[in-house]
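Encode chain A's predicted structure.
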Amino acid sequence: MAFPVCPIPGCGRSFFRTALLLEHQYAEHSEFFPYACRYCSARFTTLGEMHKHCHATHRADFMRDGLPHACDRCTRRFASMAGLTRHVRSVHASVPQAMVAQEGITDEEMQA
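Encoded structure for chain A:
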């Protein structure tokens, strides 16, 4: 069984599946860069490459923007409301919010 090979002169990479070859051609040999970094002028051919760039180059901004749901009892942030709800129920379930506000309980005490 022959593996698909990139036909671009000088490349010649081979792939297990045609879909991977097409992804490679789009990412490596395309002049089309549809994904733009929201923090700088960098542009990318794939969403994954843009996310890697944002995470490596703009980590603080990317983490804040990528995790919009903040726990009001500690410093944790979550990508979804469901994740935040699971966190509150599992970590803070035994500590009522009113008690946290009145008693000034620290994050370490809540997680103990």
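The radius of gyration is 23 Å.
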